[in-house]
Write a structure and sequence with these properties.
The complex is a heterodimer of chains A (186) and B (202). In chain A, 86% of the residues lie in helices and 0% in strands. With 186 residues, chain A is mostly helical. The radius of gyration of chain B is 23 Å and the shape is globular. Classes of the chains: A mainly alpha (186), B mainly alpha (202).
Chain lengths: 186, 202
């Protein structure tokens, strides 16, 4: 029963904040709704991009927490840790490959749905997918590491804070970066 | 003391063998695990995007549902993601071995269910208030839709998350690498289905 209340009290605030942050992101997408309906590949790409950045937030947060609990990482000069370099490298490479894949896949589906796909539009779609992924992976990595050390020092479980925080930050961030790039590029 | 041989005197095979040693097998396996599950996840995401467009006209009929949708999707991933993360740490620390600390699994699943229902209710209330404030539409059914969808999605997702995390760990995989993408993809599909069920019920 003590564990139950510990999970509830540690999670509820962050969970509500995270869910409400994601709700805010919906307003951003609403503002470019017309563009999204016209540019079919972006509409198809949007949930995958949103999922993908959330996945990386979750992977970074949970693996970093496990490193902390297993005492594989110390706060002093954390940026020199080869484990963290490896984690960031892995996520960036996979992020790049996934971004290329979803841009190509979304463009093919859009083409089959009758959208007049051109090389110029494909390049812009690819640029949006790549830039959003790179920017968010870097931001999420820094937030997870700094936030993780802070929460761990307070003797709380970083999983209860970092996963909701990183996934919502990824949700909100991906929608905002997408909104901004669509406004700039189209 | 054995003198180190200069690099240029080594054969091509020896250099390749040395380069292979630089990348631990565990790293290659982790990379493969994440890459594989991520490709499945993003494929699911693209297909979900195409499916969502199919149901958009039905969703648009309920005022406030589009305000609820992003928060609801995020909530499902957050609750199940945290549950999987906690179980992963417990598994790594050996706390979920047979007969040892039996209450851990129960407390974790009950807490995840309680959080899911409570957060769904709050999101329903926020969506209702947002609809009323910004769109001047009185749509109290959105609260009931959020609550029913929260209960349905919890009933499906929590057992799936628990079983998958334990199964992956026991089969030598790292749940931290796989569960995140698995939860978000599954969470999206289950959440949209739960919302559609809730709309049909209400």
């Amino acid at each position: 029963m003590r564990l139950f209340w510990k999970i509830i009290t540690e999670s509820v605030g962050m969970l509500l904040l995270a869910s409400l942050l994601s709700t805010l992101g919906g307003f951003g997408i609403e503002s470019i709704k017309q563009n999204l309906f016209i540019l079919l590949p972006l509409l198809i790409l949007m949930p995958a991009l949103n999922d993908m950045t959330g996945d990386y937030g979750s992977i970074i947060a949970s693996r970093f927490t496990t490193m902390l609990f297993l005492k594989h990482i110390k706060e002093k000069q954390w940026w020199r840790s080869h484990l963290l370099h490896r984690l960031l490298g892995e996520v960036l490479i996979i992020g790049t490959l996934s971004a290329i894949y979803i841009a190509v896949f979304a463009s093919i589906i859009a083409r089959f749905n009758g959208f007049a796909m051109s090389w110029d539009i494909f390049q812009r779609v690819l640029l949006i997918a790549l830039f959003t992924t790179w920017l968010l992976v870097l931001v999420l990595f820094v937030v997870c590491v700094l936030g993780g050390f802070y929460v761990y020092k307070k003797k709380h479980d970083p999983d209860n804070y970092l996963i909701p925080l990183s996934t919502s930050l990824a949700d909100l961030g991906s929608m905002l970066v997408l909104t901004l790039l669509v406004r700039v590029l189209f | 003391m054995k003198k180190r041989e200069p690099f240029i005197y080594r054969t091509e095979e020896e250099i390749l063998a040395l380069l292979k040693q630089k990348v631990p097998r565990r790293t290659v396996r982790e990379f493969d695990e994440i890459l594989f599950i991520e490709f499945i996840s993003v494929t699911g995401g693209v297909l979900a995007g195409a499916l969502l467009a199919q149901f958009l006209d039905k969703i648009a009929l309920i005022p406030g549902l589009l305000i609820l949708l992003p928060g609801f999707l995020a909530m499902r991933g957050n609750i199940s993601g945290s549950l999987a993360g906690r179980l992963s740490v417990a598994l790594h620390l050996g706390l979920l071995n047979k007969g040892k600390h039996p209450g851990i699994l129960h407390s974790n699943t009950v807490a995840a269910f309680t959080l899911g229902v409570f957060t769904s209710l709050i999101l329903g209330l926020v969506a209702y208030a947002g609809t009323w404030l910004f769109f001047h539409a009185n749509s109290p059914q959105i609260i009931l839709i959020a609550l029913i969808a929260g209960i349905v999605s919890n009933i499906i997702l929590i057992p799936l998350t628990t079983r998958a995390t334990i199964w992956l760990f026991r089969h030598g995989h790292e749940p931290d690498n796989i569960m995140g993408p698995y939860i978000t993809t599954l969470g999206d599909v289950v959440s949209i289905l739960s919302l559609i069920i809730a709309i049909l019920v209400v």
